[in-house]
Amino acid sequence: MDIESSTTTDPAATGLREAKKRETRQLISDRATGLFMAQGFERTTIAEIADAARVAKKTVTNYFPRKEDLALDHQDEFVTGLARAVAAREPGESAFVALRRAFLTAVAAHDPVAGFAGPEFTRMIAESPTLSACLRGLHDQREQALAVALAAATDAAPGDITARTAASLLTGVHRVLFRRILDLTLAGHTNPEITAILEPEATRAFALLEPALADYARA
What we know:
Residues 45-64 bind DNA. Pfam families: TetR_N. Residues 22-82 form the HTH tetR-type domain. Residues 1-24 are annotated as: Disordered. The structure is a single chain. The chain is mainly α. The protein has helices at residues 3-7, 11-39, 46-53, 57-63, 67-71, 75-87, 95-108, 119-126, 129-153, 161-186, 191-207, 210-213.
């Protein structure tokens, strides 16, 4: 037997396994979201989710260690999004300008990560104390991630007070605008209507920070 061939992983088999894992994860997430919106996050059990997805309870928890992870399955993208926008800013662009541009782009695209999650999903979060608390924690984590990115962008020491303050101000605007999207959604506005309302409001909100941060962390 050829030892090398026997120990080499088959790329096709690996690809199929990974695809199957992604499909299973998405199926569990979709079934969980449907149950959460139909009967509420707090009242839905892991056993019910497992039954709906036709998998074992352990399979659910293997993919989603916490119940909250099933409802807020874009957590990593949310937490790291502002930091990634700073890292990807264009030559000569400041962190402030990059973040404002990224936010307005997300609003125009009705990005779910920016808050465009639809009325049923938004109501599910608003009515759940657990998910509301989890969302506040994600906002805090996003601020911490942005502070790290700003410190790196300005060659400052980790924990630099200027980077932390700038991150607090910039994420504060994002937090207010995120809440505004949720409120408008719950009030019955469509996504295009929300965009029409939010674009000028966001421009005014960011303008409050412009005198202090317009040139901060310029690439």
